[in-house]
């Protein structure tokens, strides 16, 4: 069967924009190289025209230069056409890439919208409000539990604050009376102790110096206040 009908050949995929642009750019590079070669020949012919004298030889060189110049202009026209084609292909490629980006963006937005709708079905404002109310009630109950656990067992709850302040003032007054009556003066603050008054010692005698008549009756004392022994008694 294959020998009779043959085998179906696979079709080649159509060229993409990038393939066409690369091919045209390659052709443009070949044309640019040809133009450079023609420029080199024109420069050589210009030098020959300057060196040759007017006459048939110079006219022949001019004819060759004119032929090269015509070829150069033709290649320049082809190059400009190829540049325009490349520019158009670049614009089409840019538009195509922009459309692809827009398609991807739309696809991503659709997926995100679908996911958001699915999540919004599971989350309701009423459920959030109810949850907040339950949390507030639980916090209130927790505060009541903490206050109950921190309550003192010895202090009754029905005590009036004015009564407490009155008792506190009376207690301060009693403490002041005890300080004035029972605390000795030398233990009281801001007062210097009077040792003489506490020990009931007599005051030191004050008087005039001893007269010469009574000086014989006064016994001499040493530097430590002790009576001195007369020298006569020591000799005896």
From TrEMBL:
One Gene Ontology CC term in the entry: multivesicular body
Ranges where the record places region Disordered: 1-33, 202-236
Family to which the UniProt record says this protein belongs: Belongs to the SNF7 family.
Residue ranges the record marks as coiled coil: 99-148
Protein name: Charged multivesicular body protein 5
PANTHER family assigned: CHARGED MULTIVESICULAR BODY PROTEIN, CHARGED MULTIVESICULAR BODY PROTEIN 5
Swiss-Prot/TrEMBL keywords: Coiled coil
Gene Ontology BP term (one): vesicle budding from membrane
Listed Basic and acidic residues bias regions: 20-33
Low complexity bias: start-end ranges: 202-216
InterPro entries in the cross-refs: Snf7_fam
């Amino acid at each position: 069967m294959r020998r009779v009908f043959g085998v179906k050949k696979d079709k080649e995929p159509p060229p993409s924009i990038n393939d066409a642009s690369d091919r045209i750019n390659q052709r443009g590079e070949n044309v640019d190289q040809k133009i450079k070669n023609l420029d080199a020949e024109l420069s050589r012919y210009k030098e020959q025209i300057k060196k040759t004298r007017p006459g048939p030889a110079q006219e022949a060189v001019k004819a060759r230069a004119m032929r090269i110049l015509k070829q150069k202009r033709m290649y320049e026209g082809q190059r400009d056409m190829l540049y325009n084609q490349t520019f158009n292909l670049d614009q089409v490629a840019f538009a195509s890439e922009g459309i692809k980006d827009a398609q991807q963006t739309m696809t991503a937005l659709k997926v995100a919208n679908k996911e958001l709708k699915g999540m919004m079905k599971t989350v309701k404002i009423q459920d959030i409000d109810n949850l907040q109310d339950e949390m507030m009630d639980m916090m209130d109950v927790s505060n009541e539990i903490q206050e109950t656990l921190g309550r003192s067992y010895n202090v009754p709850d029905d005590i009036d604050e004015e009564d407490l302040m009155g008792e506190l003032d009376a207690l301060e007054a009693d403490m002041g009376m005890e300080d004035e009556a029972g605390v000795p003066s030398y233990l009281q603050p801001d007062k210097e102790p009077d040792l003489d008054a506490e020990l009931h010692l007599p005051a030191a005698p004050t008087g005039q110096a001893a007269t010469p008549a009574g000086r014989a009756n006064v016994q001499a004392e040493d530097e430590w206040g002790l009576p001195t022994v007369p020298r006569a008694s020591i000799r005896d």
